[in-house]
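In this section we walk through a basic example: taking a raw amino acid sequence and producing a predicted 3D structure, encoded as discrete structure tokens. The instruction is simple. Fold the sequence below.
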Amino acid sequence: MTARRFAFVWMDVFTSKPLEGNQLAVFTDARGLSDTEMQSLAKETNLSETTFIFPRDPAAERERGIRVRIFTVDEELPFAGHPTLGTATAIRRAQAGVQGGEDEVVLDLNVGRIPVRFTTDAHSQLFGEMRQRDPEFGPRHNPEDVARASGLALEEIAADLPIQTVSTGLPFTIVPVKSLRALQNLKLNWSRAAEYLERSQGKFFYFLSRETVAPDAKVHARMIFYNGEDPATGSAAGCAASWMVQYGVTRDNESAIIEQGIECRRPSRLHVRAVRKDAGATDVRVGGNAVEVLRGEVTL
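The resulting token sequence is shown next.
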């Protein structure tokens, strides 16, 4: 049997420093891989997500975007933020080496077309900003139920903001936490949380505190799921940006920084903004840096 070889690049996303941020493996040409093989490769990397690029005719890519699929260790996702930014950055860097690069990379994900716009930041590093889908504001939640499901004490949940499920492609239940210390000390029982989330229309909890470690950060965030703690959750950041502008945590179209990953020693900085619209938000933007740290090849 002839060996098949598949190249990948390893990115650290939502950071400008190698070995920080959220890790991502990007298979740059996944043609020939089956669904089962992609899921097995995602388990092999054991990262929160792994992405697979399917190159196609340039005309089709101009019209519909570059086809990308996203897998966790357990399932395929319609959308996720750090895989979108990391994959688009890998593509943009490859373009720069061949044809000068484009200012915008459009990905064709299972959730639809997601554009990522690139600029050079003040430190001469590539900065990508994705526009996510307009949010859908879902149900609000009873703090007592969330306290039982999350392991937080009821008095640790902020009473002046709602607990609410929001989706820009993947539904997150936003939980405002009163203090940084309470959020840092959080011990989430995933099986108990998953049972609650399954019956309440949320995929994961996203915990936010208005007390932060970095003085320039707007909120401190944590996201714990079935594969451990996520250092940076770009899909949740879009939901959080929508929730924050809706409830006055940020001003209309204010650029704000979410700090995440500090507790798992992978500090990340997610730049977010959104425009308030009626009972929701629009023009949801999530941005950041990404750096390549490894290249390799898988043989099957």
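Looking at the output, two observations stand out. The radius of gyration is 19 Å. DSSP finds seven helices and 19 strands in the chain. In the next section we compare this with other chains.
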